[in-house]
Amino acid sequence: MEIPRHWRLKKQRYALVGEVCPHCDARLFPPRDVCPECGGEAKQPYTFSGRGEVYSFTIMHDAPTGYDEQAPYTVALVKLVEGPVITAQLTDLGEQPVEIGMPVEMVTRKIRQDGDASGLLVYGYKFRPVMPGVAR
Amino acid sequence: MPNHKLARGVALVGAGMSKFGAFKGKTSRDLFVEAYVEMLESVDLGINPKEIEALYVGNYSCDLFEGQGHIAPIMASWTGLNPLPAVRVEDACASAGLALREGILAIASGMYDVVVVSGVEKMTDLPTEKVTDTLATAADVQYEIPAGFTFPGFYAAMATAYMHAYGATPETFMRVGIKNHQNGSMNEKAQFGATISSMMEGRKASAAKKGLPIPEWKDEMDFLHDDRANPIIAWPMRLYDCSPISDGAAVVLLVSEDLASKYSRNPIYITGTGQASDGALHDRQILTSIPSARLAANQAYQMAGITPADIDFAEVHDCFTIAEIIATEDLGFFEPGKGWIAAEQGDTSRIGPKPINLSGGLKSKGHPVGASGVGQVVEVWKQLRGQAGERQVPGKLRYGLTHNVGGTGQTCLVHIFERRD
Questions:
Q1: Minimal-distance CA residue of chain A relative to B287
Q2: pTM of the predicted protein model
Q3: pLDDT for position B73
Q4: What is the CATH number of the domain that holds A90?
Q5: Which ipTM was obtained for this model?
Q6: DSSP H helical segments within B79-234, as ranges?
Q7: Which of these, B19, B125, B314, B316, could form a disulfide with B401 (CB 3.0-4.6 Å)?
Q8: CB–CB of B282 and A63 under 8 A?
């Protein structure tokens, strides 16, 4: 990914900032300035809690360019507690089997590396299992 | 969503396709010409190419696959159709289905009486990982792809959701692949003209010839469970759950209904067309169905004035085996959650009550992405006219259907075809 594009998206990537619709109160991610629920203008930023559950997932064995070193890895659709579903990689799984409905939370991690070892490192959100018994 | 009738009827009077496969020495133009010539020859009463008024070309990405843009006028030039209007349309893997719809709308509007509709793709010049990257641009490259997803991954996530909701297993998907390879083994245009069991026997024979230990697979299912023979691509989707990387072209001839008998002794009428769009997979309320397919199907059924029960057979977009099961539910052939049971019972086999993918589907026939939607039409044309040879469905056929998906369902087109006699 080119640096300018990454720069443009960095707020969403690092802090999970979306939007809230002032007309129908829908929470939007990704932010797009127009509410897909009611069609009204929705430019008010909204920071998501980063908590949610696994909506569905797969384990990638045949990885795309830039992700080969991580394979096999688990990618998921995560349903945030605020409503939207987000596409992200799962991390810090250890031996834990992934299941639909499993509670997860957002963390910031290295997403990919462009080109060779000197290439651009891209950081962004991933989700990890919520540790049982940890107060929040 | 409002639905409208066509202002005048449209008939299919010719259809041809290149062989689908991996052709080192052929370009998209070569494949296009092959399909075009076969289309001309298929017109019962002949056509003077000077009567053609416009060309529609479905193509996903000659730009990235071959480094060639602006391909519609080139295809026209290679077939002697310049200076006719030549239109390229793109909706990912539904590009050819879209070309068909645009051709239908152009005739229905009264603008043209005779148009050529086509699809073409040449994918095998690039190495596999570059093909995967090119296909990935049909997803959201800002919000989906950075997670490390690929198209097999998206459909695998749909498969995981489907198994969780309804109890299907990876074996269910394997049975879809076995069935489609069975059908494709009877299609001389298919990329894999072989059943899975004959491919398995071929592997054994090749090991024996090289003096290597001969693998001890009991049957097709045993072979498909072997991680070395059938590696996991994105769990639960394995290699044999995925359609291949393919080259190919398909071309059909559409005319206004009143001209059908001028060209054909047995024209096929296109009585229903439907199309819908959607956001990324994460923007949907459901992962076990493709909402745009349901919308497109309902429009097409309404326009044709028929119900899913009337459809005799269908060519559906089985880019992955899970996609075929979901398609048979979205098209109303089976209730939600029951498609996998129907597949396991053999209801979708060639001799079952609802034959699906008689051509072998994208899985076995091949998936040159921008050509697949018109490739499906070629099969419907053959089946409805009783020209499908060994794989012909027995009995009298009246209605056939095509279901062509772009991405994970950001686009879907459904068309209904009728034989009248």
A1: A56
A2: 0.96
A3: 98
A4: 2.40.50.840
A5: 0.94
A6: 95-108, 128-136, 151-166, 170-184, 196-209, 220-224
A7: B314
A8: no
